[in-house]
Write a structure and sequence with these properties.
The complex is a heterodimer of chains A (496) and B (298).
Chain A: H1 2-8, H2 16-24, H3 35-42, H4 45-51, H5 55-64, H6 67-77, E1 83-84, H7 85-91, H8 97-109, E2 113-118, E3 122-127, H9 129-140, H10 161-180, H11 182-186, H12 195-203, E4 207-209, E5 215-217, H13 219-226, H14 229-244, H15 251-262, E6 270-271, H16 277-289, E7 292-293, E8 301-304, H17 322-327, E9 334-336, E10 341-344, H18 349-355, E11 360-364, E12 369-372, H19 375-383, H20 388-397, H21 407-411, H22 418-429, E13 439-442, H23 448-460, E14 464-468, E15 473-477, H24 481-495
Antiparallel strand pairs in A: 1-3, 2-3, 4-5, 6-8, 7-8, 9-10, 10-12, 11-12, 13-15, 14-15
Helix pairs in contact in A: 5-9, 5-15, 12-14, 20-22
Chain B: H1 2-13, E1 15-23, H2 29-33, H3 36-55, E2 60-66, E3 71-75, H4 92-111, H5 123-140, E4 147-155, H6 164-177, E5 180-185, H7 191-199, E6 204-206, H8 213-221, E7 243-244, E8 251-252, E9 256-257, E10 264-265, H9 284-297
Parallel strand pairs in B: 1-2, 1-4, 4-5, 5-6
Antiparallel strand pairs in B: 2-3, 7-8, 9-10
Classes of the chains: A alpha+beta (496), B alpha/beta (298).
Chain lengths: 496, 298
């Protein structure tokens, strides 16, 4: 019997791992990075240091930091010596040590501060001198003026905020229309977008070339359409910056200019005087996407629009005051009822196309589209890689103003009927009924005893996934495989 | 852990409104000692206000000056927008705060009536104005957006118990609206404001050295009240909860309380001055009681 052990080879590593992988990894989804993630993944310590020479970038970085980290920075901003680490630790409450560690590591990752040794053998934190200088300058002044702030004589025909808003939205919609292909069909020149913009869309995987050498929208592209405008602009700009260096344009300069625009005042004109040719072409691109308004290409004056303001901040959009809200009034057009019906007051093919991604469209009138959210239509969207969260946030973002006046909407956070929101989430959850665990199958045990011993051992170290006594089969977690194998070898040697 | 995280993201996304009430009364002890001090305080306050604005894009700031004769808004001034271009690398919004506050305060000080003898500042009135401003903004906030508001009082004035009633009304209103009141005392310990801070879970700090004022402000008052429990801040001092009497405005330990409106008096009076209730004379009652007691003992 002893010989039989080796012969039967107790474990057959039926490589469940290989077959599982494609199931676990869904097709690539749209990855939206915030600014902090972008800096962490794309930049090294040296390039970060270069970026910190630009005060607008520092301000943007500062606002992206965790709350606790911002307090730390402010407290050592005006301290000229390095501050011992123990002192910094003593500033935070014991109970929140974890949060504090996160904050400190975030600051180190972004190279905002670094460890230095101070006399007495203690290690201390020291702010990056460039970062410190730039932030102080932002806060208190006392440096060179930012570019584009040259004084201009008064504009004879100043543009008001309402005009800038409508201009920005119409420009941005051009890009979106192009993506769903509605722009081209109309055939007007105004709807076309520049080859540079197309290149960015291709680079970002939002669109791809198909076999007939045309350009079609990708799955990521559809997900992109579901984002709110601010997130769209930010994602698009990040992709744009990616292509910066290929075109030989300095990334820090572009980034600095982008943030400078984002910190500018709406409705005020700025000067493009003194910009080099690269920045001027960058400005022209921004003009095309609607981030700035410029009357003529050569005019040395431009107005930033709402799209450019606070590009990094996710929350700023939701916290607009009433007056701002009125300006963006046209954004709400969808009414969702508790019976899953969706009424969209729109005639834009783009909005209908997006809505059609996750609703079953029933009727179409000149200014109204009626659809219904069904299990099938939502599941189809989910299969396409769109998440329930994205659907809900889209409906919420473009909810008709009247939806927000319903009493239940005022009391709760969302203005959508809770039943619909829950159901969409449930439809998503029912697709996630499987949890995948990588494992190794053990079978062909020769005796019941062997099987029971090994199973009990696996159970005792908590690596057993599944077992069946009748067929003498068991599955062990992958990381426990080595342990169980070792135990089996020992057992079979000793016992056999 | 999760609800805490959710709470922290919520505070991150809300609007933080900070209203600074700055005592600009020229008869403050520290200002009379050295007029330069006021400039120094002003610089610190502006830098502090800007540091608050720097935290988040959606943060809001208001600065109110409080003197012996009037209360004025220093910032924001929506009607008289200062036309300015950035000149020294300071963020535009911050320069706007600095320029507006300085300009406004300058014109207020120039136009202030001359005062013969030192007068007390109208702190309670200014704080009430701050509360009104906060509640007005609160009403304009879009649905679903949280706004956290707080008031920071900076003063070098003395205790002003003549405004006791107004102070108490302000404190309890603030408490009810969930507004935190912080106080930075520059000269003396102010027991009334200390009570107010305690009621509204704010911080009270007495700064003895003006040189480090900004650093103190940034340390103690910059963190939003919702995140203060994550930081180690100075422990709350022992608060003197004595009330001041309504007749002479003096702090008293034991006094008479009107049974109808709860007004406090240091001396007995037959008619309550606040609600005009008429009391029976307390004369014979205690005498009787004493006699009975004596009888029993005998």
């Amino acid at each position: 019997m002893a010989m039989a052990d080796t012969k039967s080879g107790r474990y057959a590593s039926a490589g469940s791992s290989n077959s599982v992988v494609p199931l676990v990894q869904g097709p690539a989804n749209l990855e939206c990075k915030d600014f902090q993630e972008y800096l962490r993944t794309r930049q090294t310590a040296e390039t970060l240091e270069k970026l910190y020479n630009y005060p607008p970038i520092c301000l943007a970085v500062f606002r992206e930091l965790p709350e606790l980290a911002r307090q730390f920075i402010i407290r050592i901003l005006f301290v000229d010596q390095p501050v011992p680490q123990a002192v910094v630790t003593s500033w935070g409450a014991q109970r929140f040590a974890k949060e504090q560690t996160e904050a400190t590591s975030c600051l180190s990752d972004l190279n905002v501060w670094r460890v230095t040794a101070i006399p007495g053998g203690l290690s201390a934190w020291e702010l990056s001198p460039t970062f410190k200088k730039s932030v102080r300058q932002v806060l208190l002044g006392g440096g060179k003026p930012w570019p584009m702030t040259n004084t201009l004589e008064k504009d004879s025909k100043p543009r008001d905020i309402a005009f800038l808003d409508s201009y920005a939205m119409s420009r941005w919609r051009c890009v979106l229309h192009y993506m769903v292909g509605t722009g081209n069909r109309n055939g007007t020149d105004a709807e076309a977008i520049s080859p540079d913009a197309v290149r960015i869309l291709l680079h970002a995987n939002l669109m791809k070339r198909d076999e007939r050498d045309g350009i079609t929208i990708t799955r990521q592209g559809f997900q992109f359409l579901l984002l709110d405008t601010r997130a769209q602009v930010w994602h698009f700009m990040l992709q744009y910056l990616d292509t910066c260096e290929e075109r030989g344009v300095s990334l820090p300069e572009c980034l600095s200019m982008l943030f400078q625009l984002s910190f500018s005042t709406l409705g005020r004109d700025y000067s493009s005087e003194g910009m080099n040719s690269q920045m001027l072409s960058f400005l022209q691109h921004l003009r095309e996407f609607g981030l700035v308004f410029q009357r003529k290409r050569k005019e040395g004056r431009f107005y930033p629009t709402r799209l450019a303001l606070n590009v990094t901040s996710k929350e700023a959009a939701t916290t607009m005051t009433v007056s701002d809200e009125e300006a963006m009034q046209d954004s709400g057009y969808i009414v969702v009822e508790t019976n899953y019906r969706v009424y969209a007051y729109t005639d834009s093919p783009l909005q209908v196309a997006v809505l059609g991604l996750f609703t079953e469209l029933l009727y179409r009138f000149p200014n109204l589209v009626v659809g219904v959210l069904t299990r099938d239509s939502v599941r189809q969207a989910l299969r396409g890689g769109i998440t329930a969260e994205q659907i809900v946030s889209y409906l919420q973002q473009y909810a008709h103003p009247n939806m927000k006046l319903v009493e239940s909407a005022i009391q709760s956070k969302s203005c959508l009927p809770p039943t619909v929101v829950d159901q969409i989430k449930l439809w998503e959850m029912e697709r996630n009924r499987f949890t995948y665990t990588e494992g190794v199958v053990y079978n062909q045990f020769l005796s019941q005893n062997d099987f029971v011993t090994l199973r009990d051992y696996a159970q005792s170290i908590h690596v057993l996934v599944w077992q069946n006594e009748r067929t003498r089969t068991m599955v062990v977690q992958k990381h426990g495989h080595d342990d169980v194998k070792r135990y089996w070898k020992k057992y079979s040697k000793g016992g056999g | 852990m999760e609800p805490e995280q959710a709470a922290s993201t919520e505070t991150e996304s809300g609007i933080d409104l900070l209203v600074i009430v700055l005592d600009t009364n020229p008869s403050q002890h520290i200002v009379r000692q050295n007029p330069q001090n006021l400039t120094q305080i002003l610089e610190a306050v502006i830098a502090f206000g800007n540091a608050h604005l720097m935290q988040k894009a959606q943060n809001k700031l208001a600065v109110i000056s409080c003197a012996h004769h009037a209360t004025n808004f220093l910032y924001p001034q929506p009607r008289r927008q200062v036309e300015l271009r950035q000149i020294d690398g300071q963020y535009e919004a911050f320069s706007l705060v600095e320029k507006t506050v300085k300009q406004q305060l300058g014109s207020i000080l120039m136009n202030a009536p001359r005062l013969g003898s030192p007068c007390e500042s109208l702190l309670a009135g200014s704080m009430a104005m701050a509360l009104c401003y906060i509640s007005r903004l609160q009403r304009n906030v879009a649905a679903g957006v949280k706004m956290h508001s707080r008031i920071l009082v900076l003063t070098g004035s003395n205790e002003c118990s003549s405004q006791y009633m107004t102070f108490m009304n302000v404190f309890f209103t603030a408490q009810k609206l969930g507004i935190t009141i912080d106080t930075c005392a520059l000269d003396k310990t102010l027991s009334l404001l200390q009570q107010g801070c305690d009621i509204t879970t704010g911080q009270f700090l007495k700064v003895t050295q003006l040189d480090g004022l900004l650093q103190y402000l940034l340390w103690v008052f910059l963190p939003a009240p919702q995140m203060r429990h994550k930081l180690v801040l100075p422990p709350p001092p022992k608060v003197d909860y004595r009330a001041s009497c309504f007749c002479h405005r003096e702090l008293i330990d034991i006094g008479y309380v009107c049974s109808v409106c709860l007004s406090v008096f240091c001396k007995y009076s037959p008619i309550c001055t606040t609600c005009h209730t008429i009391f029976k004379t307390p004369g014979p009652l205690p005498v009787k009681g004493k006699k009975k007691k004596k009888d029993k003992q005998m």
